[in-house]
Specification:
Elements: H1 3-20, H2 27-39, H3 43-58
């Protein structure tokens, strides 16, 4: 099994575990992980992207 297939399999397994725990991935999250695999993002780049998204989501919007 090549690296991309391994990553894809692990992503599906992680998504399944999230669903079992009552916190399933939504379509946007699945698409994000598929993008990571398709574009060959490093673990460091993935982590930075996810952390930035989390920070942005936690920041109150100025218009609100």
């Amino acid at each position: 099994m090549n690296d991309k297939n391994t990553i894809r399999l692990r992503t599906r397994e992680a998504a399944h575990l999230q669903a079992i725990e009552g916190n399933p991935l939504d379509a946007e999250q699945i698409a994000m992980f598929e993008m990571f695999a398709r574009e060959g993002w490093s673990q460091e780049k993935r982590r930075a992207y996810i952390l930035e998204r989390a920070r942005a989501a936690a920041t109150p919007h100025a218009a609100e």
